Amino acid sequence: MTHSDPTTPEFLMLGTCDYPEHVPSDRWAPYARMQAELGLRFVRVAEFAWSRLEPRPGEFDWAWLDDAIAAYAAEGLRVVMCTPTPTPPAWLIRAHPEILAFDEGGRVREFGSRRHYDFASPVFREHSRRISRAVAERYGQHPAVVGWQTDNEFGCHGTSRSYGGASEAAFPAWLQARHGTLDALNEAWGNVFWSMEYTDWAQVKAPVLTVTEPNPSHVLDYHRFASDLIASFQAEQVELLRELAPGRFVTHNFMIFESGFDHYDVARGLDFATWDNYPTGMLEFFAPPGVGEDLKTHYARTGHPDLVAFNHDVYRSLMLGKDGLGRAGAGTPNGFWVMEQQCGQVNWAPYNPLPADGAVALWTAQAWAHGADVVSYFRWRAATMAQEVMHSGLLRHDETPDRGFAEVAGLDLTQFPVGPVPARVALLHDYESLWIFDQQRHAAGLSYWAQTVTYYMALRSLGVDVQITHPDADLSGFAAVVAPAITLVPAERAARWEAAAQGGVPFVFGPRTAFRTPGGATWPGGQFGPLSEMTGARLLQYDSLRPGVMQGVTGAFGSVDASLWAESYRLTGAQTLATYAGGPLDGQSAVIRHGNATVIGAHSLDLIRAVLSEVLGGAGVPLLDLPEGVRVSRRADRTLVQNWHPHAVTWGGLELGPVSSVVLGGDWSPTEGKGEQGE
């Protein structure tokens, strides 16, 4: 492997997640030597080590971790230390069972796995601060420790919300602070409906175990409340680490398509975001409509390129424009990390196939092309005990290098220079819209993620680099803005969008845009509420389509079939670009435009792609016509062309081997033939 000087982050850097507490101490030095020889520069440790660090209340054992860190340091490896709070030990839980969370069925989620705590528990928060302070006092200024990860994977296993215990008890006070009076709460939630009005704050419980669907406004506020708990928990740890670990970065490893909290709020105070990338498992759980069993089988050994890319862009964009608060000098890259990168088969999906030859190298290259400065492989050695024995590592159970090890060894990191991703198109993403959209989907097969990712897939199929952006961010610098599913649009947000559009930025909106008020109700004047003037239209009808039922759409973008959802509009100034053909919406407006605002009412990848092609082309965004499974990403004046197919592909003058990528010069274009390969 070729790598740069570790003090000068000019190129992508690599790391691994290691667990010295899982192996005999005589393995620590040999493992560190192997890691350094492989070209790894960072090692993450100790996120699940609370029971070894504090085996009994107040009794700490640092010797083993001191020795492990010394072994890493002797080989020049840099350590990312973790606060060990995701796994409170048995002695703490048995002494304080009130720490445990409740599921949506009203049952206590027991000890014996991980993430078994309620963010609202004052007892747990006290012990979280105590253990985090102890670890930070020990290692906060250790010369080998260059950064910190808070906790681990907030929200994993559905743990972002507890529906009883400490959380339920704390909810009324949060509501009182938000709404002020019970009259205001009842008005905001529309509690006159079904006689749901409250006369005492203590009457309000978690929105679960209701006879039928709970009030969506109640659900929305509970999600906001739970998200605020995670944000405050995170802020406590960040504040402590800033105090005790000066000059070190602080991050958190976020999750694949995690929906349980507002990541923009929770990421405040971090230096950069990291996330955990498991492409094959992601495909099984998060493939949008249209990616059926045939495509799942086709991409089973690589994952789908657009699902992986979407998450890269979420976490790259989460912290853009933010000054670093505590980086460890020039040797610590500034961009986001993939803290856990799959390097073999996983153990947690319905099907867990062995990745294709070349997949680990392809995933690494793609991460770099979307802005990652570090890719860290999970895990070093496959676990020989407990829940993850079926999960792979860079080493097999018997310590021999696995296939992923060989692919990492073959990487030439000088192909992957650090630098900006030239994204000129913003795709808007909002967690509150996600929560209220999914609470009342109205079409079983269509979720917020499915609708949003469909628009993202269309953009990627056109060869467009994307910045995923909060809807309240400054949008004036973008060539175009795409808002697939922002269903919750306050008046202030609408005014900012309208000003950007009047300034020349074209917008493309998807179905159910601005359907909701901030409280979760509909606007009294109907959709589009405060966006009505910008869109020049009002909602006329919406139709939820059963699986297999198609709705024709015809007009300026040809004739296509839509599925799952179709909505039509009553025009108050907009013009119709496409209409529905057949069905109950026959002849009604399906795609409309008013000034710089275009609205697509039907769910159809082909229609979305055609509209985006026309809008982006008019905005001067260069476009490609990429075949399925071939993707192009750009970074630092380089172009990465990727083939995610299990077979070779010829495209744009390039011969692309199965499951492979090639780095080309930034000015490369398929219309110019083969181009020159980057060095």
TrEMBL record:
Enzyme Commission numbers on file: 3.2.1.23
SUPFAM superfamilies the record matches: (Trans)glycosidases, Class I glutamine amidotransferase-like
Protein name in UniProt: Beta-galactosidase
GO molecular function, one term: metal ion binding
Membership in a protein family: Belongs to the glycosyl hydrolase 42 family.
Pfam families according to UniProt: Glyco_hydro_42, Glyco_hydro_42M
UniProt keyword DNA-binding, yes or no: no
